[in-house]
Amino acid sequence: MYNYGGIAPGYGLIRGVNNFVWKDLSYVFQFCPIVGAEVTDTSGKKIHIISDGLNDYPNLREVNPTGDTLWQWQPLPGYADPDQPYIASNPANDDDGDGKPDSWPRDWYNPTLGQYVWPGFLSQGASNADLELFWSMDDRDNVEFPYFPFPGDSTRKGIGLQVDARAFQWSNALAENTNNILYLYNNKRKW
């Protein structure tokens, strides 16, 4: 899973990772949340904007003219430690022994409790599964269309959505080969 919304690597094995492997075979190409909206652009014309996180074939990718920015979901800061490559998870290793799980951001320290606390889905510190991932993303880089969901901020475009996502996995025999993913969509557009 990737914090830009993609589940499985898609074309070209993103970051050289081939995931969703079962019995030495990759069995998922890719999927992700896809959201569309009809909006009014700066000229008053009705347009349709689609935001997604697909790592598609190179000739099908929606990318800016210079090829350095994908017009898709992008991870938001504050949901994982920026000095490591993983999505925040619970449980998580503390390989350097500093008291902070390695994938967690420093902001998750609770001074009242004197420890880092997982922002559980149901309550702080609560674990809901044997393995839980948590990330957030928005579509600010989907700059393909003349639509500005945040008046006065021409750097953020897209539809104006933020998606908070959690993946849950259990070791119980009834659920051990499933991944349950919860997406919470928030319209951050300024009216």
What would your notes on this structure say?
The chain is mainly β and 191 residues long. The chain has one domain. The chain is built from no helices and 11 strands. It has strands at 21-22, 25-26, 35-40, 46-51, 74-75, 88-90, 109-110, 115-116, 131-138, 161-169, 180-187. The strands form 4 sheets. Strands 5, 6, 9, 10 and 11 form a 5-stranded antiparallel β-sheet that branches. Strands 1-2 form a two-stranded antiparallel ribbon. Strands 3-4 form a two-stranded antiparallel ribbon.
Secondary-structure map with pairings?
Elements: E1 21-22, E2 25-26, E3 35-40, E4 46-51, E5 74-75, E6 88-90, E7 109-110, E8 115-116, E9 131-138, E10 161-169, E11 180-187
What value does the Rg take, in angstroms? Answer: 18 Å
Helix and strand content put the structural class at: mainly beta
Measured by DSSP, the beta-strand proportion falls in 25-35%
| Average predicted local confidence, pLDDT | 85
* Sheet of most strands: 5 strands, antiparallel
- Overall domain count: 1
SS elements, strand count: 11
Task: Give a short overview.
The chain is mainly β and 191 residues long. The protein has no helices and eleven strands.
Tags for this model:
191 residues; 0% helix; five-stranded antiparallel beta sheet; globular; two-stranded antiparallel ribbon; mainly beta; single chain
